[in-house]
Amino acid sequence: MSEFHFKQFSICQDKCQMKVGTDGVLLGAWANSEKTKLLDIGTGTGLISLMMAQRQPKATITAIEIDPLAAKQAEENCKKSIFEKQIRIVYSDLKSFEPSQKFDHIFCNPPFFKPNASTANLKRMIARQTLSLDFETLLEKASNLLEESGIFSCIIPFESLVNFVELAKRNHLYLNRICQIKGNENRPWVRSLLEFKTKESSIISYSTLIIEKQRHVYSEEYTRLTEMFYLKM
Known about the structure:
A hairpin with a 4-residue loop joins strand 1 (3-5) and strand 2. The protein is α/β, with parallel strands linked by helices. The two termini are 19 Å apart. The chain contains seven helices and twelve strands. Helix 1 (22-30) runs parallel beside helix 2. It has helices at 22-30, 47-55, 68-79, 122-128, 135-145, 161-170, 220-226; strands spanning 3-5, 10-12, 37-41, 60-65, 87-91, 103-108, 146-157, 174-182, 189-197, 205-210, 212-214, 217-218. It is globular.
């Protein structure tokens, strides 16, 4: 599908290796929406930036992307939306990104597949794998770019949770909220939605989410989370 329609915007994705997917929608719907100076790391099509702009009309969003074609497509998607004035697309990798301001909310749907010899498409590999952005670099830069009261939100594979949280602590980011995700009741946990703060909290908010009750029949919790975006929810 080259174009994906949501209730308040549409996403063209023919030039972008990373298409609209459940992970991005989950993060865009779940992440805190109270902050106003936002940074989207690895924006891809611009999906999560557009979701956050819809949820927070007062937000200004900087979205960076390492792939020039994806950055161009994200810019086109944002320009044709009603949220154009809220979002600025920057063609840059995270390591060399040096903005003039810090942010009160940073979010990222990071690459997580390890590089392997069977990967045929280099651009897709860069988009999907830790080849271009490892977790340690992501967390170090996020910590440096956050304001003192800022938050960092992301979605990662469930099996990476323990290591990711430990790496975050080393970079002075402390788990504040977590939601464990599974596709259906009979499947194992597959994703973790995480929110970190720059100050450690004695209480961590914990929740779970099951996406489907059965094939193509979505749970009430997933429907409530995403219904302001999906056309058929």
